[in-house]
Amino acid sequence: MAVPPTARRPVVTGNGVAIGGAIVALAILGLSGIVLAWDGAWWITHTGQTGTPTFLHGRVAGWVTQAPALVVRWLGGDAMALTITFGLGFAAVILAALVASWRIVRPDRDALLVFPMLGIGVALLPGQALLISEAVMAAALAWPLVLAAALGRVGRHRWLVGATVLLLATLHPFAIPIFLIAAAISGLTAWRTTDPGERTTASRFALLLVLVAALVAGRFILAATPYEEGATSLDRLAQQFRGSVAGRPLLAIAGASILGAWLVWRPRRDPLGIVVVGLVVGAIIVVLGGWAADPARWDQALMFRTFALAVQLPLIACAVVAAWRPEPARPLAAIAAPACAGVMIVVAVLQALAWQGVMGDLRAALTSAPVGCVEAAGLLPPQSPLDHWGITSLVLVLEAEAPRHLVVADTACADVDATDGVPIKIVEGVTQDRAPADGWLDLRAIAGAMAATEQP
Q1: Highest mean pLDDT: which of 136-145, 210-219, 239-248, 400-409?
Q2: Most-buried pick from 90, 99, 218, 358 (CB within 10 A)?
Q3: Across the chain, which distance is largest between two alpha carbons, in Å?
Q4: pTM of the complete model
Q5: What is the pLDDT of residue 257?
Q6: How far apart are the first and last CA of the chain?
Q7: How far is CA 441 from its chain centroid?
Q8: SS (H, E, C) the chain
Q9: Picking from 9-13, 116-120, 283-287, which range would have the lowest pLDDT averaged per residue?
Q10: Residue 11, pLDDT score
Q11: Pair 319, 336: CB distance under 8 Å
């Protein structure tokens, strides 16, 4: 049952600060160039080369996020412009999830914004460097549906909710559990409410979500790729958990969940609550700050995408319980939400600086490397986030004015064939994408060096 507005409207002035802080943090990430990490550099190189959107596994919603980058590409933008536009475009999806959540809880349940701030602004931070991840974007977009279903506001925000459902359905398989979770919440809302119209809307929405989830599941089952099938093996999940969640990220996620539970138990602002927020947020900053500043600690953050939805489930449960309770006149959330934005900014700044350091070290290593093919093992320190097949495209973008090095991560230079074009994506020794020597990037120096090497 949706809780009616109290006679005295709660004042949650911190939400504007929280959203503003999120904008700052996401802008820092978008402008830092960290979108080039892992798969990101190939996405940019492929889009720059073809002039068309890059998406994999039938996840066509990526067209929306890449639209600004495509405009820049069609207007003749260079690699740096495309990198920045890509970064800001993908970061905007995370911001849109927060703004949509804020729109749904306004004007009388503003305190509930603290839960998506905890989920997106803290629990998802260990995966924020992978800006292009559809999994992370889907996990963030779960929040508008959860809040609309819990508050019984699907009818009030039908266009916003409908757009979110459509985007999720074409974005990532995470849409399936998200729709089922939101359907369950909407069904419980229908059971709790005494308003016939609200009960009908909530019931229909729950049924619709179940049907859409079934359609999405059928689509992914029928068109499943080897990549998606292999992503669910237990051995791989255990390896990914150890590499991306265990340790400091897990401590931060636990801290966010503890703070979410506290806000459900004691939502009113009081001295003890302020102390709890300060201690938990301070501990999270210490834990994630040290993690973000050291690239060796997040060298496997790519794998965090597998758990992007799971780490938010405790906070989703807390948000639903809080939505079904009255909101106090002086909520503790007015302090906690901006504090989450502070965590976002600190981690974004430290990780962006760490990424710039990694790029500086790579540039320095390349200065003494010969023109042509170079094996990454001789360039990178242990536990580097650059130790990934995406380094091939990353170096091409880094040297965009005149690329001179084809850096390969998981194959020997002797096995690289540039006869039909310069490889820009080599995965486990197999060339999956090539670019002409005289295309969007001027790769003639690399092609010439490799041709000379191949001559007997």
Answers
A1: 136-145
A2: 90
A3: 86
A4: 0.90
A5: 97
A6: 78
A7: 28
A8: CCCCCCCCCCCCCHHHHHHHHHHHHHHHHHHHCHHHCCCHHHHHHHHHHHCCCCCCCCCCCHHHHHHHHHHHHHCCCCHHHHHHHHHHHHHHHHHHHHHHHHHHHCCCCHHHHHHHHHHHHHHCHHHCCCCCCHHHHHHHHHHHHHHHHHHCCCCCCHHHHHHHHHHHHCCCCCHHHHHHHHHHHHHHHHHHCCCHHHHHHHHHHHHHHHHHHHHHHHHHHHCCCHHHHHCCCHHHHHHHHHHHCCCHHHHHHHHHHHHHHHHHHCCECCHHHHHHHHHHHHHHHHHHHHHHHCHHHHCCHHHHHHHCCHHHHHHHHHHHHHHCCCCCCCECHHHHHHHHHHHHHHHHHHHHHHHHHHHHHHHHHHCCCCCEEEEHHHCCCCCCCCCCCCHHHHHHHHCCCCCCEEEECCCCHHHCCCCCCEEEEEECCEEEEEECCECCCECHHHHHHHHHHHCC
A9: 9-13
A10: 43
A11: no
> Is the peptide bond preceding residue 5 cis, with omega within 30 degrees of 0?
no
Per-residue tokens: 202: 């909530």
